[in-house]
Amino acid sequence: MNTSAAQSAAERQVLYVSGNPANRIVELLTAAAWQVVVATDTEAAPDTPTKAAPRVGLIELPQDATPEQLGALQKYVRRAKVTWIALVQPGQADGAATRQFIVDHCYDFITSPYPEQSLLFAIGHAYGLATLRDASSAPQDEPRRISSRRAQGQFDMIGECDAMQELYRGIQKCARTPAPVFICGESGTGKELAARAIHNRSPRARLPYVAINCAAIPTTLLQAELFGHERGAFTGALQQKIGRIESAAHGTLFLDEIGDMPYSCQAVLLRFLQEGTFERLGSNTPIKVDVRIISATHVDLEAAVAQGKFRADLYHRLCVLKVTKPPLRERGTDIEMLAQHALTLYKKEAQHKIRGFSADALAALRQYDWPGNVRELFNCIRRTLVMAENPVITAADLGLNAMPDSLGDALHVAHVQTHASATTAAQGAGNAKKPVHA
Ligand SMILES: Nc1ncnc2c1ncn2[C@@H]1O[C@H](COP(=O)(O)OP(=O)(O)OP(=O)(O)O)[C@@H](O)[C@H]1O
C-alpha cells in the first residue's frame, strides 16, 4: 500500500476495545462514517501500528477490574499507539487504579449513559489531536519562537505573543496534512489570513485558493455558487457555470462564515465531503474533485449544533483539525505592533507627516477592549490619521471611549501635585506628548 493510500485507509477508523462490544456503539460510529475495528481480545497483541492503523481508540474499562487486568490493558494500549477515549460506568473513575489508567493513557473519558453526540465529539476531537501529533512528529523545519518580522514574511501576520506562537505552530502542522481545518475566533481576528497561511504553506500552495463567504450570498444562490449549475437549471441560469468547488480543484476551498450556511445547503456539502463527488444544479452527472476544505466562523458552532441549527455530522467532518485565532485584547504588546503596522500602511492618507504615537495613545490602545479586533484597530488608526492635526497621535485623537483608569488616575495625581496645566501634568504622568514610534 503506498503512503497516501495507507493514510486514507487510516482516516476515520476507530479501534473499539471491549470484552462485550455493544452493537449500539458500532452502529452509532458507523452511521457517523467511522470505520469500526472491534478488538475483544486484549491478551493478543494489537496489530503493529502502521500508517493504515486506526489513530483513535475507544476502550471500555471493565468494572471492578483487577490490577492485573488493568496492567494487561495498559500493555495493550501502549502497543496500539492510538489516542484513547475510555468508556466507564458511573462512579468507576472514582477508583484510584481506573483514574490513574485514564490519566496516564487516555485523552478523554465518557461515563455511561452518555448522549450520543458526546461520544462523537470526543472521538472527533481525539482524531484531530492524533492527526496533529502525526504532523508534529514529522521533521520540524521551524525554530520554536517566531519573531513578528518572520511571522510577517511567512504567514502575512503581525504578532509574536504566546497565543500567536501557538497559532503559528498550529498553522505549520495543519499545512502538512490534507485534513479539513476549522478556524474559530471572534470577528476581525484574522481568520481569513490564517486560512491563506495554511494554504500557502501546504503542498497545494501553487494550486488554486478559492474563498467564499457563506453569509454574504443569498440562501437561494449559495448552492449554485458552490456547486455550479447547468444552463437553464433555474430562471436566470442563462449559461453553464462552474462552482467554487470545481474552481478550487486540487487546491483549497475556504468556507468563511460556515455557521451561516443554510441547513439545506449543509446536507449537500456533507454529501460532497463524504463522497468527494457532487452534481452541478440541473445535472445528474457526478463530478469528482479533490479539494482541501478550510472553514471558519465567528459563531459558536458547538452551541449551534446543540441548538439544532448546524448539522452535527457536518461539524464533525469540518472540524478534524481546529485552529483558534486569539482576540486582540489578549495579545498584549502585539497591539502596539499592529497599530504601528497600520500607521505605516495608511500614513499616506494623513494630511501631514505623522511621527508616531504618544505614550497616552499607546496606553489607550492597550486598555481598550477591541470588540472588532484587528479590523477595528486598523479602521481606528486609519480614521485617526486622516483626522489628526498634530504630528504625534494622542489618546484624544484616537477617540477610544475607554479612558484607562490607571492613566486617568495618574493624570489626576500629577495635576494635583504640580498645579500645572493639564498638558504638563500629562507629560509628567506618561510623557503624553513624546512620540514613542517615529
Ligand atoms: N495578525 C495580523 N496581522 C496583520 N493583519 C491582520 C492580523 N490579523 C488580522 N489582520 C487584518 O485584520 C483584518 C480582518 O481580518 P480577517 O478578515 O481575516 O478577519 P476575520 O476573522 O476573517 O473576520 P470575520 O469573522 O469578520 O470574517 C484584515 O484586514 C486583516 O488583514
Question: What's this entry about, in short?
Answer:
Pfam families: AAA_lid_14, Sigma54_activat, VpsR. With 438 residues, the protein is α/β, with parallel strands linked by helices.
- Residue stretches low in confidence (pLDDT < 50, at least 5 long) are 1-10, 403-438
Strand order of the largest sheet: 2-1-3-4-5
What fraction of the residues are assigned to beta strands by DSSP? Answer: 5-15%
State the CATH architecture of the largest domain.
3-Layer(aba) Sandwich
Helix content: 40-55%
How many DSSP helices? 19
Helix-and-strand structural type: alpha/beta
Oligomer: single chain
Radius of gyration equals 27 Å
Main sheet attributes: strand count, strand direction, barrel closure: 5 strands, parallel
Distance between the termini: 60 Å
Count of beta strands: 16
Chain-averaged pLDDT? 82
Protein name: DNA-binding NtrC family response regulator
Keywords: ATP-binding, DNA-binding, Nucleotide-binding, Transcription, Transcription regulation
Pfam families: AAA_lid_14, Sigma54_activat, VpsR
Organism: Paraburkholderia bannensis
